[in-house]
Every structure is written in structure tokens, then in C-alpha cells.
Design a protein that fits this description.
The chain is α+β, with helices and mostly antiparallel strands. 30% of the residues lie in helices and 27% in strands. The chain has 2 domains: 323 residues, 2-Layer Sandwich (BirA Bifunctional Protein, domain 2), CATH 3.30.930.10; 90 residues, Anticodon-binding domain (Rossmann fold). The protein is globular, with a radius of gyration of 25 Å. The structure holds adenosine-5'-triphosphate (ATP) and magnesium ion (MG). The site of adenosine-5'-triphosphate has 15 residues, from strand 8, strand 13, strand 16 and helix 9.
């Protein structure tokens, strides 16, 4: 892609409510545009990053045998009346009437709808366990939408649901998701801490939030620093290994403010190891047993012929929130550097040229074509501007690798730079391996 052709409305004027870095940067870099309070359009660069995150989330869900489906955004109120949540959910739910006067709603979550899908077809223990997920827009009429994509009214979420015959097997599903979440966040270049959480209005008895440390986060967290020493490479999807992992995490103190008790913290964690800070919740998993299956009549025949309410869990990842969360985690001194896995482009070529001398631009186009042939997603900055302006702009866009075509680059050796480190001179044919390393 040539930068002159890219729809990237870079802007300097920020609204006064853009208080945190990710919100400012996403607006400045033309990734999003607000359409009304807490509702955004995703512009090409923003959408590209979000789609990459979505794909990583999807791949890690598929790896544990979860199957993707797609439920609608608009739901009937009937199933919510059956579960009893139609009234309980309160004002966060956007309620709509269709032309026949039927009560509908824009889904804030999907426990009812997935249970309805499940109960209508699954009748026997033989079909269990099962995990289903979708990645779909949600609407919650948040009282205070803010911080850009962090707390929106309309947002993009992956939500998965597990179905098991009994508590023991449900626990295995929960553990798989737990590990899958840690792997997902790691691929996104993030270190997420799983924290014991309250189950809140969704109910049930087992729940973890996955939190990324950030000063701008809305969750207050209390943890033992030794949680950062747990190495994911020590575990596998084997059941025993998963149990060990959960045990290892549970033995380290890590909670959000709802569960925090000072006396307990001081007793369990020595002073030097205590970390009190803020974080962003990027994922949340719950085990709630038969909380929905019972009222919604989702029963299966067990081996001994009895009817059992299916045991369910639900598992969410804030896909659109993650775009902002990654920025909060990676932004440093006015410079953005996307993790390779989600960067809007693999590399940008920045030639130094002007009206009277376009030699470097011509050279850059040749490099561009060569890299394209190698399937590298490359951006060529063909906009006529001085180099310092160009570098500022690319500090904002955040592509992690740059090829600089100026006086220092020759035909055979080109100047190559990873953002925030020294440049080196490399052969064109070696660029691909450099981008991977
Ligand atoms: P929060 O405490 O932040 O309101 P929640 O407990 O209501 O989150 P869940 O219902 O578990 O969230 O949703 C799963 C994930 O969806 C959250 O972990 C978060 O990453 C994301 N999410 C929830 N609400 C919003 C929102 N208003 N805007 C953007 N992302 C959200
Ligand atoms: Mg919420």
C-alpha cells in the first residue's frame, strides 16, 4: 500500500474527553472515529489491527476444540424473561420494539441465546462436552462510556460457552479456557495476570479476570510479584498439567478490589513482594453451573437415565478493548510500537525525496515490489514531506520495522531499523528473516 492512497485521516485536534494515550493515539492516527457517545466507526488501520487480534483469538479458541458460530446482535426478550434476567439486567440493556410491538433487545451477552440453541438439539450426555463461541458486536448502555474503545457502548467481544455433564468435567473445560486465554494474550504481546474475581450478577462460584497492568486501567489490583515468575512454557493441555497450572496460579495472591482484604494480603505476601497497581480487564471467565440451564430447561439424559441440567461456563475476551489495551501497554515516550502479530503493516519504507530529486522514491518502489513478491505487507511512504515530519508520523502509526532509503542506503545494503533500536545495513533478501526475528 502507498501511503498517499491509504485512508488514514491523521488529525491534530483532539476532543477534551480524550484523556488517555490509547484514546488520543487512536484518534490522531485515524484508527477510529466517534459517531456518538461510546459508539465508534473503525477506520482502515484500526480495523486491520482489530481483525488481526480477532484472528489470533479465533485460532487459540479453535485449538482447544471450541467451535465458532455466529449469533445475531438482536435478540428476543422472551428468552431473557425465561432466565429471569430481563428485569435484572437493568438500564445497561438496550431495549427495542419491532413494528409488531414485540420486545427485542441488542444483545449485551449471549448466555440465554446459546442455551436456547443448545437445548433444542442436544438431548444426551453422548454429545457432551461441547464448547461454542462467536465473535460479535455487543451493546451495553454503559452509564459512563469513556476512554475511547476501552469502555464503549457498542464493542466487539469473543464470547464462548462450555457445556458439560457434571462439575468435574466442567472444571476441565474451564481450565482449558484459562490456559487458552493466557496463550492468546501472550501471542498478542501482552502479559495478562489471571485474578480471582467475584462472580457478580452473572452468578455462580468460579471466576477469573485477566488483567494487563496499566496506570490508566479501571481495575485496582493487589498481587504478589512472584506471579510474574510463573512460566507458561511449563504447562500443556494435558489435564494433569492444567490442574497444576491452576494450582500454581491460585497459590499466589492476586485479586481485584472486590476481593481484597488487607489483613490477608499482609499475612500472605511479604512487603517487598506486594504490588498494588491498576490494570485493564481484557478477559473474564465464569463457571456458573446450572444457573441458566435450569430455568431455561436445558437438560440431557445421563448414562444412568436421569435428567441432568447441563453445567455451563462462559468466557469473554474484549477484542475491541484489546486494541486500546495493547497501546496502553506498549506506548512509550510518544512512540508507538505494535507487537508484530497485530501491526497494521509488517514494515514501512521511508524514502527521503523531494520534487526535484525522486531517485530514492524510485529505489523504494523497487524495494516495495520485491517485498510484495515475498508476501510482506509493506507500506511505502510516498508522501512528500521532510524526514523529521515523516518519522513523527511513523512514531504515531507504530509499524515496528522501518526501511530508510536516503543517502546511506546503497543498491545492495539498505538501512533497516526496528523502532527504538539502532539501524543496521542489510541485504534486501535478508529483510524477510529480519521481520520474523
Ligand atoms: P467490566 O468490569 O470492564 O465492565 P465486565 O465484567 O462487564 O467488564 P464481561 O461481561 O465479562 O465484562 O465481558 C467480557 C470482556 O468484554 C471484558 O473482560 C472486557 O474486556 C470486555 N468489555 C466489557 N464491557 C466492555 C465495554 N463497555 N467496552 C469495551 N469492552 C468491554
Ligand atoms: Mg461491565
Amino acid at each position: 500500500m502507498f501511503l498517499s492512497k491509504l485512508f488514514i485521516p491523521i488529525t491534530k485536534n483532539l476532543p477534551s474527553d480524550a484523556k488517555i494515550k490509547s484514546h488520543q493515539l487512536m484518534l490522531r492516527a485515524g484508527m477510529i472515529k466517534q459517531s456518538s457517545a461510546g459508539i465508534y466507526s473503525w477506520l482502515p488501520i484500526g480495523l486491520k489491527v482489530m481483525k488481526k487480534i480477532e484472528q489470533i483469538v479465533r485460532e487459540e479458541q479453535n485449538k482447544i476444540g471450541a467451535q465458532e458460530l455466529l449469533m445475531p446482535t438482536i435478540q428476543s426478550a422472551d428468552i431473557w424473561k425465561e432466565s429471569g434476567r430481563y428485569n435484572d439486567y437493568g438500564e445497561e440493556m438496550l431495549r427495542i420494539k419491532d413494528r409488531q410491538g414485540r420486545e427485542m433487545l441488542y444483545g449485551p451477552t449471549n448466555e440465554e441465546l446459546i442455551t436456547d440453541i443448545f437445548r433444542s438439539s442436544v438431548k444426551s450426555y453422548k454429545s457432551l462436552p461441547q464448547m461454542l463461541y462467536h465473535i460479535q458486536w455487543k451493546f451495553r448502555d454503559e452509564i459512563r462510556p469513556r476512554f475511547g474503545v476501552m469502555r464503549c457502548r457498542e464493542f466487539f467481544m469473543k464470547d464462548a460457552y462450555s457445556f458439560d455433564l457434571d462439575d468435574n468435567s466442567a472444571k476441565i473445560s474451564y481450565n482449558k479456557m484459562f490456559f487458552s486465554y493466557l496463550k492468546t494474550f501472550k501471542r498478542l504481546g501482552l502479559e495478562a495476570i489471571p485474578m480471582a474475581a467475584d462472580t457478580g450478577p452473572i452468578g455462580g462460584d468460579l471466576s477469573h479476570e485477566f488483567i494487563i497492568l496499566a496506570e490508566t486501567g479501571e481495575s485496582k489490583i493487589y498481587t504478589d510479584k512472584s506471579i510474574f515468575e510463573i512460566d507458561l512454557n511449563n504447562y500443556s493441555y494435558d489435564n494433569l498439567s492444567l490442574e497444576k497450572m491452576i494450582k500454581d496460579y491460585s497459590s499466589v495472591y492476586a485479586v481485584t478490589d472486590e476481593k481484597f482484604k488487607k489483613a490477608e494480603f499482609d499475612k500472605k505476601v511479604n512487603k517487598q513482594n506486594q504490588l498494588i497497581t491498576k490494570g485493564i480487564e481484557v478477559g473474564h471467565i465464569f463457571y456458573f453451573g446450572d444457573k441458566y440451564s435450569k430455568p431455561l430447561n436445558c437438560f440431557v439424559d445421563s448414562q444412568d437415565g436421569k435428567k441432568n441440567a447441563v453445567k455451563m461456563g462462559s468466557y469473554g475476551i474484549g477484542v475491541s478493548r484489546l486494541v486500546g489495551a495493547i497501546i496502553e501497554a506498549k506506548y512509550e515516550k510518544e512512540i508507538m510500537k505494535w507487537p508484530k502479530a497485530v501491526s497494521p503493516f509488517d514494515v514501512v519504507i521511508i524514502p527521503s525525496f523531494n520534487k526535484n530529486n525522486k531517485e530514492n522514491l524510485t529505489k523504494s518502489i523497487k524495494i516495495y515490489e520485491e517485498l510484495k513478491k515475498q508476501n510482506i505487507d509493506v507500506l511505502l511512504d510516498d508522501v512528500e514531506e521532510n524526514m523529521s515530519q515523516k518519522f513523527k508520523k511513523h512514531d504515531l502509526i507504530g509499524i515496528p520495522f522501518q526501511i530508510i532509503v536516503g543517502s546511506k542506503s546503497t543498491e545492495s545494503k539498505i538501512e533497516f531499523k526496528e523502532v527504538n533500536s539502532e539501524s543496521s545495513f542489510v541485504d534486501l533478501k535478508d529483510i524477510k528473516s529480519k521481520l520474523k526475528s
